[in-house]
Amino acid sequence: MPTRRTFLIGGAVTGAVLLAARPAAAATVPRAARFDCAAPGARLLGDVPLHDVTVMQSFAFDDVNGHLYVVQLMAGGLQLPGEPEPVSGAVRAKNGDLCLTRLDRDGRETGHMYLLGFGHGVQIGAEPQGRDTFLWTEVDSVSDDGVSGWGSRLCRFPFVDGSVLTPDSPGLVRHVPVPGADRTTCGIDPVNRRLVMRHRVDGAFRYALYDLKDVRRHRYDPLAVVAQPELTYSFQGYATYGSYLYLLEGTSGAAPGNTYLTCVDWRTGAVVDRQFVTDGAEVEFREPEGMAIQVAGPKEVRLCFGFASGVAGARRANVYYKDALI
């Protein structure tokens, strides 16, 4: 068994731990304050148009350079260079074709990319490196349900405005932390420099936490692994900060809706909090979509979550946050 590894199989909402292979290894994730999911949130951005017109799927911050990256499925009807004809939305979804929009701090578009054959965009991460930003996403899309494409590996690539990437594009580096896993996605904890990967093994979703520098070096020895607790509504995103993992669930609909935030302790796999989200009551459509950690200042860290708004053919992005720690 690799060093520093903890397998923690969590129960349902009760958070009962069924198996802990090496409890002592939890010390590699020191206890830290967690976000108060019950505290009132605030709006960061509202009704922001993206490069495409579809629902936002997830987002990530590069706070060093002042960028926000939002990913969405490509809409139907677009014909990119090299494509013989316009492609329908259904085919785009099955292929795992994504549109990535770069926004500034005020929500203005400053660039975009297309990612063909990558996946569904459930979650992404951003890593600043000087004035550049490297994105961490899923790649090598597989349509195991015949409707949507889902990533089967992770990858890292630099943002280049206006470019079109495929899984074979130069400069894209693949990562396979868990061989044989599918539905792979990831996010970044920018404060603690960690990467969280959501993946499915034998039909069950798990989350693995790594040092980001280790993953870049293709060293995949996790700090902790926890099972996804049982959720009531549609899974919509996740983020990690310190010793806690945060999950977003819910479906579209007018407030009050059914959006919930769940907090899981990386050290035990237990659910320590689950709260109904009332933020964004004014948002039309209000489908929860994506989570990310924002570093708003030297001592100001935010747990951000998104809502899609608008009507079909003219969707908009909204980001809210909670910053109270307990």
How many angstroms separate the termini? 35 Å
Order of helices and strands: EEEEEHEEEEEEEEEEHEEEEEEEE
User: What structural class do helix, strand and pairing data support?
Assistant: mainly beta
Instruction: Return residue spans where pLDDT drops below 50 for at least 5 consecutive residues.
Output: 1-25
How many domains is the backbone divided into?
Answer: 1
How would you describe this structure in keywords?
six-stranded mixed β-sheet, Tachylectin-2, Chain A, disordered N terminus, five-stranded mixed β-sheet, 23 strands, 326 residues
Descriptive notes:
- With 326 residues, this protein is mainly β.
- It has one domain (7-322): Tachylectin-2, Chain A (5 Propeller), CATH 2.115.10.
- The chain has helices at 89-95, 212-216; strands at residues 7-10, 17-20, 42-48, 56-62, 67-73, 98-103, 109-115, 125-129, 132-139, 153-158, 164-165, 173-175, 182-189, 194-201, 204-211, 224-227, 235-241, 244-249, 260-265, 271-276, 287-297, 300-311, 314-322.
- A hairpin with a 4-residue loop joins strand 4 (56-62) and strand 5.
- It is globular and about 55 Å long.
- 48% of the residues are buried.
- Residues 1-26 form the signal peptide.
